[in-house]
Amino acid sequence: MSEIAIRTEQLTRRFGSLTAVESIDLRVNAGQFFGFLGPNGAGKSTTIKMLTGLLAPTSGRMELLGLDFQSNLIEVKRQIGVVPEGMGLFERLTGREYLRFVGRMYGLDRSTTEKRTEELLEFMQLADREKTLIVDYSHGMQKKIALAAAVIHRPRILFLDEPFEGVDALAAGALKALLARMTERGVTIFLTSHVLEIVERLCSHVAIIHKGRLVAQGSLDELRAGVEENEGEKKTLEQSFLSIVGQSGGERARLEDLSWLT
Question: Which of 100, 137, 242, 246 has the smallest number of Cβ neighbours within 10 A?
Fold first, then answer.
């Protein structure tokens, strides 16, 4: 039986009268490349913020790497890496200064930090930006330095919130290769992305959240099979997603209201 890397039980987050995430039970096995999907406002980023300790749940519990999150907060955070939605970079540092700082904060010795910093800067094609502050990086470059900082300590779970947004095709190819290599070595990757083709290409398992509730969870083949059984034809992930969240026919109806554009 596979080790479970991420487990939630009745995980809930409310903001006043708004329930952003309601009673979700997630199961992610160690070494899986796991896609977490949902429409805008469905609760994806709120869930990631809870799973990474950036936001406390209103109720429910989380277990990462077999450890209760709330009881082992520091130990869990030492073993995860995060590229959050807003990245949260220290923009008045150079890329090299930032990676050195992050490495030391994770407890790496100076020699290991220096070696991994140089390797990551080379891999991310940022080594030639010796004196450029992160604030002057392009959006794609900031994404790359954020990912470099998230993996410098060799995390066992990596959380990625829209990691390919604003990244050019060459850089995206390198990042995909890096992520695939990490899963081969047993790292669990938890990815959110609105680009379903990327999820379909990279992920082996997915969960779909809609209006704060988990509406599907399983392997890509299981997800497609459930939809095909109901509709009798082979579906892409995008078609399966639209079928599950109930939006496959709504756009055409709404388009009639914009007849002046069409």
Answer: 246
